[in-house]
Design goal:
Blueprint lengths: L5 H8 L3 H7 L6 H8 L13 H21 L14 E5 L7 H6 L3 E6 L2 H13 L5 E4 L9 E7 L8 H11 E12 L3 H12 L17 H10 L2 E12 L3 E5 L5 E8 L1
Parallel strand pairs: 1-2, 1-4, 2-3, 4-5
Antiparallel strand pairs: 5-8, 6-7, 6-8
Length: 261
């Protein structure tokens, strides 16, 4: 795939939703790309505007590592369970997940609709001596298939979750593993994610739209329509004593892993 310039990527990202869906090519929402692109400057600052992502990332990585080990029957103590495998992180931001996946041995491709984030991701990976293929594009523009496909806190920000899942499914190689995370649509999620987190400035205002949150039963239906099958669902819960942690409680946020049906 020919890498696009920043201006070309931005032009694609700002294509109107209706036009993109009419062509059947993208679920990118321009205002979402612009919102997250504006956060690129301090994305890697654990105390900056993306601080909540830094708190979420270790929890998500714990789940991802467990699913990798189970799916490919890896040694849970091995340092590079993804050695020889390819990974695609969709909505990669500035690389918070891409870099750990690369350290786990994967050949990683990261895509994001915000060119500013891709610039930040490339700069940070270079400082870490990590070879990651970053692209300012939508998932539908990516060629090929990948053993592992991830999309963390992305599906609630796209124009068409169904189309987005179908696009993810086409990028998943036979025998591959898809892992996503997203907020649940519950009063508890609204309280913690929007009222408190956004209200207190822990998350930039306007990041979330409660009506776009997807409950697990709807997610399972969307996954099935995309030709995939949910293998596992686990919650991300919050408590004052433990902070964010994996849990059977799905009310706040949850992770889901899926495979080809």
């Amino acid at each position: 795939m020919v890498e696009t310039s920043t201006s070309e990527g931005l032009a694609r990202a700002t294509t109107s939703t209706s036009e993109g869906l009419a062509r059947g090519t993208t679920s990118i929402v321009a205002r979402e790309a612009e919102h997250f692109g504006a956060l690129a400057g301090d994305w890697w600052d654990p105390n900056g505007a993306s601080a909540m992502l830094h708190r979420l990332n270790p929890v998500r990585l714990g789940y991802i590592r467990d699913r990798i080990d189970q799916h490919w029957q890896c040694d849970e103590h091995g340092l590079k369970p993804l050695d020889g495998k390819t990974a695609l992180d969709v909505g990669c931001g500035a690389g918070l997940l891409c870099e750990p996946l690369a350290r786990l041995g994967a050949r990683v491709t990261g895509v994001d609709a915000a060119p500013e984030l891709i610039v930040a991701a490339r700069a940070h990976a270079e400082r870490q001596n990590l070879a990651i293929d970053y692209r300012a594009s939508g998932v539908e523009e990516v060629l090929g298939q990948f053993d592992l496909v991830t999309a963390m806190e992305v599906i609630e920000h796209v124009a068409s979750p169904g189309q987005f899942l179908r696009d993810l499914a086409t990028k998943l190689a036979p025998g591959g593993l898809l892992i996503m995370s997203t907020p649940n649509r519950t009063p508890w999620s609204r309280l913690l994610t929007i009222t408190i987190a956004e209200g207190l400035g822990q998350v930039p205002r306007g990041t979330h739209d409660y009506d776009s949150f997807i409950p697990p039963e709807q997610m399972s239906a969307l996954v099935a329509k995309a030709g995939l099958r949910v293998e596992d669902t686990e919650g991300i819960a919050y408590s004052l004593t433990r902070g964010l942690h994996l849990s059977e409680d799905l009310r706040l946020n949850y992770l889901v892993s899926a495979v080809h049906a």
